[in-house]
Amino acid sequence: MSKSNLRRLSAFTTDPKGGNPAGVWIGDTLPSNKKMQQIAAEVGFSETAFVAPRSGKNRTVRYYSPEAEVPFCGHATVATGVALGEDSGQGNYLFQTNVGDIPVEVSKQNGLMYASLTSVEPAFESAPRGLLTKILNALGWDENELEESIPPARAFGGNWHLVLATKTKQRLDNLDYDFETLKAIMLEDDLTTIQLIWKENDHKIHSRNPFPVGGVVEDSATGAAAVALGGYLREANLITAPKQINILQGEVMGRPSQLELSIPTVGGITVSGSAVNLD
Question: Which of 127, 148, 214, 216 is such that its CA lies 20 to 30 A from the CA of 159?
């Protein structure tokens, strides 16, 4: 009989009351798609990662929300990296995912295990006018509330996100949207989350991420959206790389999270964080 274990961790935090919870299922072989979906629904977190060995420190990883499989998930990757670090040791892992191979570096810092993932090659495109209008209507936002220095864009770092920057933190903090309407728009446009941000300064960005397509009102820490944002900022020449940016997310939800974004001059974007066990 194959061996497996299911763990629950919160990523991008050192406090169990913060961060974004993720399930991490580790076994000799992956369950069936139906079984993985069932387990993810039972866990109930925004994502659960399913992990099986390949060779050495290489792993096959799949991600499921309570409602569907997702191509890639950053916070569940960080949680998985920390879990593997605790079980199998520090070092450089390679995750084979549905979006490609994701390098994950696991190390212990100040007594805590940290994981750093590097995304696939990022991409972006300006947000189509029709999409922007529909999204703003679903959010109840006015276009004049958007920050002109960071134009609306579809950004990719393993899956697609719509980036909307606000002029004020007050606008970001006041989030109350039409769940079913936004979900339908996002499904039609293949969007995983809406990356809502307010730039405090050149090295600090506050973020909120509606995730209705996963059956979740809001994600408290979204690594995939963070790397997509980093790629967009670099590729659109909105920053000068290399650049380090601290993303603060989950604050209004009462689950503060910290995502450390490292944007090199070329290639994938790296996001790092710790994770703590919830079991």
Answer: 148
User: What is each CA distance from 190 to 28, 140, 201, in whole angstroms?
Assistant: 32, 21, 30
For helices 223-235 and 74-88, what crossing angle results, to 10°? 120
Q: What is the tens place of the pLDDT at every residue in 41-67? A: 999 999 999 999 999 999 999 999 998
Asked whether residue 108 falls in the same domain as residue 134, the answer is no
Total count of domains within the chain: 2
Domain extent for 78? 4-117
Tell me: the pLDDT tens digits for 63-80?
Answer: 999 988 999 999 999 999
What is each CA distance from 225 to 6, 139, 164, 180, 190, in whole angstroms? 25, 18, 12, 21, 14
What CATH number does residue 97 fall under?
Answer: 3.10.310.10
Torsion of CA 254, 156, 38, 21, to 10 degrees: -20
Structure confidence by residue, pLDDT tens digits, 13-41: 999 999 999 999 999 999 999 999 999 99
Which pTM value belongs to this model?
A: 0.94
Helical pair 129-139 and 179-189, crossing angle rounded to 10 deg: 160
160 and 112 within one domain = no
